[in-house]
Amino acid sequence: MGMISANSPISDIAEHHRVALYPSFGRLADDGQSWKLNIHGVVLEPREINLRKRILLRLLKRVMNADPSHFDSELFRRRIDCFIQAGGPGCQIAVRIGDRCFLLPKRTKRNGHFSGTLRLSRHDVDRLRADGAVDGNWLQLALIAPGTEERQILGRCLLLEPTGTSVVSDIDDTIKHTDVASRRSLLANTFLHEFRSIDGMSNLYRQWADQGAVFHYVSSSPWQLFDPLSELCETAGFPCGTMHLRMFRLRDHMLRRMLLIRRKGKGAVIRSLFRSFPNRRFVLVGDSGERDPEIYATLARKFPQQIERILIRQLPFRKLDGERMLRLLRRVPTDRWQLFHDPSEIPSDSVAIDSAVPRVLV
Asked: Does residue 96 lie in a domain region?
């Protein structure tokens, strides 16, 4: 790989832009001689709160019906700020991998998000491993911006082998207390309270990670919550993994849309993972509160050879039982399902994980 030169491409983002590179994954190309790396991130512009957004914020506060002091807290300001910032459209994005710089073919979208696929030869990836740029199968990335060396935005891409076990995990009410059944609680837990993990889930996931499993966190939560969700995963000790969230804008009908997007899109993300890795085995973990069981059952019918297990955390306000359970069992064999209230009910060896797969150390 060549050295970075003065002519290497750089991103045309400004000093005031806030930029993030999201954890993504790479896979071997069909020829087996190169890696295809998915790149995804966002460029945001700080904005003053205009009149329309002030009205929406008043509506949000009214629905939550919380003590006014909560809305003066630093936590609320941090959370709501992520929704107020505008996307930085039309920015050119350059990514450094090792000593090479790559220009993404498309500029940032209207909402500031950017994505693209880069290709590296297996030889290049082997060199990066030898140079220490790959840590536990995570390839280190950096977004190159104008200015000094300090203006680098770091990211990483999981080099995912064609075979092995992947755990696809929901977030809300599966590994994090959210209470999606109550609109008021959902919004309060999103904007007013520190995120709290479900006891025992991180310990279970770490045991699977130690056996070689890798993780994909797939949620209906908006990308604006990426930072606090990542912080929760880190502080609670969840294994590192790729994260797949939803696009969302602060606009009219915000509350209706925030609840509506929770019902869509998750299945499409998981189907894409299945198709990208047809020889991997998948464990699907979710909860009974939303539509995880129905989504997972549909996937199990379409991809029966790829799904190892479906684990559903039972929630008291909407249990998976009765006619609902019977409908699912007509579509998926009973030996694929396990319902649980506490993660201690799931033996760490209850899921077959291919120990021959190189471990992902997190």
From this structure: yes
